[in-house]
User: Fold these one by one.
Assistant:
Number 1:
Amino acid sequence: MSMNNAEWINRGESVFVGTYSRFPAAMIRGDGCRLWDADGKEYLDFLAGIAVCSLGHCHPAVTRAVCEQAAKLMHVSNLFHTEPQIQLAELLTANSFADRVFMANSGAEANEAAIKLARIHSDEGRFEVISLSGSFHGRTLATVAATGQPKFHQGFEPLPSGFVHAGFGDPHKIEALITDKTCAVLCEPLQGESGVRPLDGAYLQAIRALCDKHGLLLIFDEVQTGIGRTGSLFAYQQLGVIPDIMTLAKALGNGLPIGAMLTRKEIAASLGVGTHASTFGGNPVAAAAGVAVLQTMLADGFFASLQGRSDYFVEQLQGVAARFPGLATGVRGRGMLLGLVLTERGIEHGADIVQQLFKKGLLINFAGMRVLRFIPPLIVSREEIDQCIEQVTSVLADIK
Ligand SMILES: Cc1ncc(COP(=O)(O)O)c(C=O)c1O
């Protein structure tokens, strides 16, 4: 007998460690930009599994690739070569600055690999990584330490040493932290979790210049911005800056867990046999999903069409900000990683706005406690954008 939301939630809450504050719904099925819960309610999904299901739920090419691979070979470990993993690494290198890939299972793991590489590659035992305040790099101990938000550190001290955080927006603040121990600068080209904060091209170019001047590696965490999210396959491609190392995860498998660390051959050479590994990293089924994702996005017209819909979405959100100046100040972000920036008064209502939208069947979230974040599947249609705007408008209009 099928169970409803309340029954699933009761069962779940009696068995899980309570790390998550979940919406009161058990999701059963997805298709494109739509989800359905155990009560049969339909949702318009502008969260996409937190910027993961970029081709939409159950995209036919991905589902086909996963099913075919699962029927052929699911796992052999990295003691062997496998076809999908090689194809995926070839696609990633052919379409980026990089020519070497290490496969992981998540964003945090990809960042761990990047941090280990930066340390082992540096001369004279340099080990310190400079990241930015407001950044988010994951939940393992090293990536929590790299994350520039104290709320993620609390209760877990002492954190691994070798991580310092520079104030956001000013390259001099980074330069002031460079010592003879520094090996790398780590940053997201656009900070997603802390409130959709883009780093502009000039700022990133200044960071690149600092890295060159001081012999540091520049690591871009493109876990959230990568794989099409900001309107090009990788965010760095729009910014006139090329990193030395780039990390990916989230949308790479459209929902299957896979991460990757990309770099150039000369740098990769520092991670020799036995220095790093993962049992599951680049698992054949997850890698087959990744191949299908990249082939779909690299097809003609994908990014041109995305840009048109992104421009339309930005315009509509700007219209919302203009209509509710007491609640919203404007829009920021790129591609389909967009934020409606709230005023102080709007921020007080932010969490409630998200809950009201959930009740109306629209899924978004409140990023960094200051911005309503919209990260729909990249295939979202103009009609779906209109529906989203209609719901947001009606919820904001209800705030007295
Ligand atoms: C920029 C960035 N880096 C790293 C991570 C961590 O990824 P994961 O949750 O797959 O470990 C996230 C997740 O939100 C992220 O946005």
Note: Residues 302-323 form the longest helix (22 residues).
Number 2:
Amino acid sequence: MEQIDIKGLEVSVNGKKVLNGVDISVQRGKIHVLMGPNGSGKSTLANVIMGNPKYIVNAGSIKFDNEDILKLKVNERAKKGIFLAFQEPVEISGVNTMNFLVTAHTNLKGKNPELRKEIIKKMGELNLSELFLKRSLNEGFSGGEKKRFELLQVMLLNPKIAILDEIDSGMDVDSVRLLGEITKKLSKDTGFLMITHNENILDYIKPDIVSIMKDGKIIRSGDYQLIEQIKKEGYKQLI
Ligand SMILES: Nc1ncnc2c1ncn2[C@@H]1O[C@H](COP(=O)(O)OP(=O)(O)O)[C@@H](O)[C@H]1O
Ligand SMILES: [Mg+2]
């Protein structure tokens, strides 16, 4: 089974211990929702899985397909089929959006003469105008537009495992519905680690697993009904 397996992960950033022994796995073809209060370490976990060198792994393991990936660089992990959609996508002045998408795709999946057409078709599904392709990546895009471009990359790159870090924040109701429907469709082939605060995502997807993180640890795991409980009672009752 293609999956990411994380055991006993301890991580620090700028000398601060942020993850204190995290066990979690993400399976291809399944949706794992990760929730939890602000500052509990969710984005840290996402960054460490992707291999951001700012984060120091002090203990534990991250395996993908039973292979230790901790020594791999970001681009090597991407080549293996791991993708991270950022909580705060950066604006990159001077990098043309179309060129960026074509380069990313070509690096990871090889040349595809139909790519332009495919990009435009998928942008249509996301209600994004073709005009964006002429602009600098993310520059002056609204919050929701940036998030839809992150989702576009998932649709184009077809990763084995996609980590979506609060991709639904800043999205309007219609875009959240679109996100839910697209994630559900893509999850036939891709495994998702979906970090979110949005309980309404349940209206569109029933995640296979829900985990709650607090103070750098997974404090609860269960099925989608855990979200119903959070919706009613908040995190405090669980903690
Ligand atoms: N670069 C950094 N330097 C110092 N502390 C950081 C850094 N990045 C994150 N942290 C701290 O680590 C904790 C977890 O942050 P984060 O992973 O962003 O949480 P979440 O995504 O769950 O809101 C927070 O207390 C945050 O302030
Ligand atoms: Mg975060």
Note: The first helix runs from residue 42 to 50.
